[in-house]
Design brief:
The chain has a domain of about 110 residues: Immunoglobulin-like, CATH 2.60.40. The N terminus is likely disordered. With about 190 residues, the chain is mainly beta. Helices cover about 5% and strands about 30% of the residues. A hairpin with a 4-residue loop joins strand 1 and strand 2.
Length: about 190
């Protein structure tokens, strides 16, 4: 059975609720006297205790970066063991490579007479095998078999800005690396 209240009855009820005085909440109990709270301990330089990683913890992104000393693309060899910096002169299609240390700051002389790259050029169907030859430098005393600089002219790269490839093999500071992929220009190292 539904309950029906007329407008007049509802108006009387609403008016009586609005006119009813509101009660104040009961007074709060007086606080019980207790000993004063101890003062906070002064800060120390002691390290925070180690905590176990949580399953949601993720390793921090690699933020370590180097600047290419010649303005080229840095290709990392090993985990920051060494670098090969690649430069492209798009006017001539000349590719130059510089062997560098792990910080990409100092040249590292290589005993090999060449560095071979396998490159892919946009709009060129077949990959190109490019042999960069040792560059002699009378100022530094570098010569073939004892140099940090290698170079070759690659006609399909003339007028181009980018290419991809792999370093076929390179021996640097007593270690060998093979099939190291790169992209020129890179998004950053």
């Amino acid at each position: 059975m539904a309950l029906r209240i007329g407008f007049a009855a509802w108006s009387v009820f609403a008016a009586s609720c609005a006119a009813a005085p509101t009660e104040a909440p009961p007074p709060a109990a007086a606080p019980v006297a207790s000993a004063p709270a101890p003062a906070p301990a002064p800060p120390t330089n002691a390290p925070e205790p180690a905590t176990e990683p949580k399953s949601t913890d993720r390793p921090a992104a690699k933020t370590h970066a180097h600047a290419a000393p010649h303005g080229g693309t840095l290709v990392e060899l090993g985990d920051e063991f060494a670098h090969l910096e690649l430069l492209l002169d798009k006017e001539t299609g000349r590719v130059t490579a510089f062997a560098l240390d792990g910080e990409a700051e100092k040249p590292v002389r290589l005993s090999q007479p060449t560095v071979t790259l396998r490159i892919t050029v946009p709009d060129v169907l077949e990959p190109l095998d490019v042999e960069l030859t040792a560059v002699e430098n009378a100022l530094t005393g570098e010569k073939a078999g004892d140099t940090s600089q290698f170079s070759a002219t690659v006609p399909p790269l003339k007028g181009r800005d980018e290419f991809r490839g792999t370093i076929t093999s390179i021996g640097i500071r007593g270690r060998s690396f093979a099939r190291v992929a790169f992209r020129h220009p890179s998004a950053g190292h």
